[in-house]
Each structure stands twice: as structure tokens, then as C-alpha cells.
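Internal tracking record. Fields below are filled automatically when a chain is submitted to the structure queue. Please do not edit lines marked as system-generated. If the sequence contains nonstandard residues, flag them in the REMARKS field before resubmitting.
Queue: standard
Priority: normal
Entity type: single polypeptide chain
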Amino acid sequence: MIRLNFLCIPALCLALAAAAAAAPAPGGGVLALVDGRTVTRADLEERIAALHRYAPMQPGADSGSVDIVEILDGLVDEELMLMEARGLGLDRTPEVRQGLEHFAATQAIVRLRREEVLARAAVDDARVEAFFAEHYSGNATRADAVLERMRPRIERSLRQEREEELSQAFVQALRDRATVEVDRELLERVSPGEAQPQDQGCLARVDRECVPLADFLADLERAARRRAAPPRMAVGHAESLPKDDAALKEQVLQALLTHVLVRQEALSRDYGEEPDFQALLAKRERELLLAAFKQQIVFPLAVPKEEDLHRYYREHEQDFHAGQEVRLGSMVFSEREHAERILAELRQGADFEFLAAQEAERAEAGGRWLPVASLDPRLRAALRGLEEGGCSGVLSQGSRYVIVKLKGQRGGALAPFERVREWIREHLTQQRYQEMLERYLAGLRARASIRVDRELLERVRQELWQPRNAPAETAGDGQTGPQHGPRGERP
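SYSTEM-GENERATED OUTPUT FOLLOWS
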């Protein structure tokens, strides 16, 4: 993909600056102030809508089951992370700037296509009927019924044809007025699947803009892999890729030049002055900054040290016995109190099989050998360190409670530490990441000035989350209000 110099796109720079400085939407209502940054009612409602969109509630579900204060906490945390990310200069890193440049260019191209192609590709009834009349050779008395049935398909086909015509004409117009120079000698020296020239300069120039050789090589490598893939694994239009290397290079080059021409035209339009475009850029910058903060600042804190890896290996040796099998007896209870009482008797020496027959609602004798790797992680953890004949504690299993006895174990050579080192590193990192994030956020909250409009928050909760005709919840003093306040708020 072409690398843009974001600072050289004035319209988009102004768009981003305007979006970053934009005041809260009129009438949106400020729910929280985080060191002067606002979290508005509109922000909260947008997040609630997203939650329902990606995790839709079941019919009849109570929307109040989602904690509105918890959602506000998440928005406050995001503001804290964004301020910290900017304070650390992450907004100036290549990853964030290039990601934003690519997004801006993509959105501009989408709008350009909407204007120049999609808005002009409408198909009227006359064209549909003319196409039908030209191609239909059936019974004339049934023609009207057949036309109505075929109309959506004909419209779709004609529109696709029209979009292709408009696209080709538009690109040709761009090529006709552009100055394109290609280094054909450099192009000749590169071949798919072979060592490439050390020169990583410009393969071409489009109106004096460099088209880097590196971008061409990346596209050529992808095209070569698609061409070489077995038919059942091929993606995209692999069958349209030339078998001849020279033809493949030319096809890839022309596609890249077309992209540059279209992108240049899209960025020359005034899309950056449109408020909705500014909002898209601001939202994407937030996403990129949050991702950069978590990846570059928090994630390294969660990476375990070498001694942590060895300690985990020693304490979890049972998990690294390849092919190990166990035989398990079990008894199941519907009430925890019952299970705890039976466990106490077992620990005093009572017979497991006798109690299983007399007290358990359901019991397993443990006749089958089970691969340890197939067991639930919680069960594997409960078996860790047990001697043969030992019993686990009470384990929750849905609405049931289980006690397990290790009746036998066999096989399983211990995997060497070096073989499982990376797995342990990834596992511990995942475990520790959330803990490190919460710890970092706690520090940010402790240093921040956070003000929450509790009265507005409660009104929003009443309006959005209270079931119709249901009385408002009241606090102990008779005043309506959230049952708990946002984390970290300081008066």
C-alpha cells in the first residue's frame, strides 16, 4: 500500500484538527469530565447501541441487566488511556499516523466511488424492459409475470455492467490527464519468487509521486502466491492471473498505478471539510491510539520473566505430560451445602464409593481412561497435585456441584521445558495482561480529576434502561439514584 505523507494533505489535517477540537454535541449532555475531557450522553448511548448490536438481547430480556455505570466507567477509562497515549507521544508514532493515513485515503476512495460510479449507475424500468424483450423468447401471455419475477435479477446484472463501464471510463479519464513514468529496466529485473534488487527506490512516478518498488513487490508476491495456490485453496480471481511472469508483473503494476491515480483524485476532493468525515477520522484515531497504548505500553508489562516461566513449568508439570490418561470417579449434587458436607466426610476417611451410592444424585464409577488434554481446564487444575486415590474439592458445573476422585493415571512423558516455553509465555502473558491494565488504569484514575453528573446519569438510566411502567428504583433514603457510583470519581 502506498505510504502517504499525512502532513502534506492539508484538507485531511484540517479535518482531523477540527474533529479533535470539536465541542460536545449540542444538547448531548456532559455525563463526566475527565481532566477537562468530556464524556457525553451521546457517547454513552452510542456505546449502549453498539453493545446491543453485537450482543443482541433475547426477547423479553431486561435491558437493565447491563450496568450503565460500568459502561460509563469504560468510557472514562478510554479517555484516561487516550490522554496517557498522547502524553507519551503515541499519536506521533509511525504505526498510528500511517494507520490514520490509510484509513483517510480508504474513506475518501469510498466516497469518490459513491459519487462517480454508484450514484450514476441507476437502472430505470425502460432499460430492464428493453433487456427482457431482447432476451425473452417464451410464451407471450406469460411475459408480464416472468418479467416481474426476473426484474430484480435483471436490475442487478444491468447495474453491475453499468458500474463497470463507469469505473473504467473514470479511471481512463484519470490516466489521460496524468503523467505516469515507469522504470521499465527496474521492472525487468524483478521476478516473482526470486531474490529482488536491493534498490528500494521508485518503480514509477504518477504526477511526480513516487510509487515505491517495495509496494509493487508486496503486491507481486501476493499475486504469485494466489496463482500458485491449488484451485480449492485459491482466493479472489486467481484464475484470471496470467501464467506468464511478465504478464503478471504488468497486471500487478497497472492495478497499483490505478490505485494511486484513484487515491490522488479522492484526496484532492474536499471530503475533509465534511463533518461526518471529520467524525470518522476522529473515531479511527481513538481506536488506533487505544490499540497502540495497550500494545506498546501495557502488553510489555504483562510479559513474564524467565524465572516465571520455569516456576509455572514446575508447578504445572502434570499439564505437560503428552498422552497422559486418568480414570475418574465422580458424584454430583444439586446443592453446594450437601456437596461440602460429603467432602468433609471424605476428608475424615469415609469411603468414596459408599457415599457415591448413598448420597449422590448421580455418580460415575470411573471405568474409562480419559486423555488429560481433553478435560475441562478447571478439572485439570483440580487434579493437579492429587495422589492416586485422592479427591478434589467441590467443583461448580453449571447449576450442579461435583466431587471427583482420581482412581488411576498412566502414560505421558514429560515434555522438555524448551518445547513448551513459548506456550507458557503466551499463556502467562494472557493471564497477566488484564491485571496489568487494571493496575495501570487505577494509577491513572488516582491522578486524574474525574467529575460525574450523577443526576444526569440517573435520568439517562431511568429513560433508557427502566422497563416501561416500572417504578424507579430508590436508594435507602428514598431518593432515586444508581446503586453504586462510577469508579475513581473524586468530588
